[in-house]
Design a protein that fits this description.
The protein has 410 residues and is an alpha/beta fold.
């Protein structure tokens, strides 16, 4: 039987492996990667943007009955966050389409930095911006200046990159279209450049709480050097600064430097920002003098999720988490979710096209198979077996039955 086996001498190729892809119904139903259904995945990612991943899996099991591992919750949250981040950065490009909201007549923008813990004991600065509408309101027979309709933007990035990526939020809120804009800040150099690039004519105000902290440092250093100051010296200086302006305050602290040179650094800081401390005029014009909006953004955007007990983040995970926090706090979760889903489908389509192109190039590079001459098969002896029996090597009839058939023919 070994000599009767047929041989295949033609050239053979390896069959390509089966790859993951979208079924048309999966696209219509927005079925995500993995084993989670769309509602479960969206709930997981939403929880992951607010809670530690260990608590996320407990909430998911308790509310939906879905059991996942902590690594799955982390991977799903960060992958969606990365796509949301890419979508937000895409809107910041100069010629990209970006939704625009109705601009208020008077608006305020504030910027500051907040530190977050990274792995290996390293700390990094996250830059935060808050934008809001300035309104006058009466509460308990007293007129107050409040900042409403707050939205935020945050990134762990250099100052120039942060200014470029924040342009989408600035354009969306209408900072360029507003009639009057004030910029409340702590006087950092990078914030000055940020304001200059987005609204150069904005009224710049040194955050009153920041100025107060430098006045308190001056008092502490004078007392540490043995100097005597009244118990309410700081309160009196701040009251004069708030209601009379910086002229007398700066003259007073400058005289103190003659006896206490160790306060020169704090005094120079205030002198350099003299034009930003005309608080009586700011209040009279109806502008806020405190950056409470951006201070609260530290807690809402950064600290609430990124500075929990024992948390240490990889640098590449900070911005995806910030992107999710912004989508949640700016009340744009549905918009961001649809955008990241569209981006995921587009990315997978590009990958499929790249694989198809690679296979086509590989097939073009392969030489055509050489023709193989067929070897003539020797004639078989007549044994009474059919071709099918030769092919499968089975005896359908016994030899005794064949002899009986031959005797019947004779």
């Amino acid at each position: 039987m070994e000599g009767n086996r047929s041989k295949w001498n033609a050239r053979m190729s390896v069959a390509r492996s089966v790859e993951a892809g979208f079924f048309p119904l999966d696209q219509e139903l927005q079925v995500p990667d993995g084993h989670l259904l769309p509602h479960a995945q969206q709930t997981l990612v939403s929880l992951g943007s607010e809670l530690p991943f260990g608590r996320v899996i407990k909430h998911l099991e308790r509310t939906l009955g879905v059991v996942v591992h902590t690594s799955t919750a982390r991977r799903q949250t960060l992958s969606v966050g990365q796509r949301v981040l890419e979508g937000q950065n895409e809107q910041a490009r100069p010629l990209s389409a970006c939704p625009e909201e109705k601009a208020s007549e008077r608006m305020a923008m504030s910027s500051d930095g907040s530190m977050v813990p990274l792995v290996r004991g390293v700390w990094a600065e996250v830059k935060v911006m808050a934008i809001g509408a300035v309104e006058r309101r009466r509460r308990k027979d007293e007129e107050q200046i409040v900042t409403t309709q707050l939205t935020y933007f945050a990134r762990m990035a250099p100052a120039a990159t942060f200014a470029d990526q924040a342009s989408a939020e600035v354009r969306r809120r209408g900072i360029e279209r507003a009639k009057d804009v004030c910029a409340i800040q702590d006087g950092a150099e990078w914030i000055q450049g940020f304001v200059q690039s987005h609204r150069h004519d904005a009224l710049r105000i040194l955050d009153f709480a920041h100025a107060a902290s430098y006045v308190s440092e001056i008092a502490d250093k004078v007392r540490e050097s043995g100097g005597h100051l009244p118990a309410k010296w700081v309160d009196g200086v701040l009251h004069r600064l708030k209601h009379e302006g910086p002229a007398r305050v700066l003259l007073h602290v400058t005289r103190l430097t003659r006896r206490y040179p160790q306060i020169q650094e704090q005094v120079n800081y205030l002198l350099k920002r003299r034009e930003l401390m005309d608080y009586p005029t700011y209040q009279q014009q109806g502008w806020p003098i405190g950056s409470g909006s951006v201070e609260s953004s530290h807690k809402l955007v950064v600290q609430a999720r990124l500075k929990g007990p024992g948390m240490h983040w990889r640098p590449e995970h900070i911005n995806p988490m910030l992107a999710l926090r912004l989508a949640l706090l700016n009340d744009r979760w549905s918009e961001s979710w649809q955008e990241q889903h569209r981006l995921r489908q587009h990315q997978q389509q590009l990958k499929r096209q790249a694989r198809q192109q690679q296979r086509f190039l590989e097939q073009q590079a392969q030489p055509p198979p050489l023709p193989v001459e067929s070897t003539p098969q020797p004639a078989r002896q007549k044994t009474g077996r059919t071709e099918a029996q030769y092919r499968w090597g089975r005896q359908t009839f016994s030899p005794r039955m064949l002899k009986q058939a031959d005797g019947a023919k004779k």
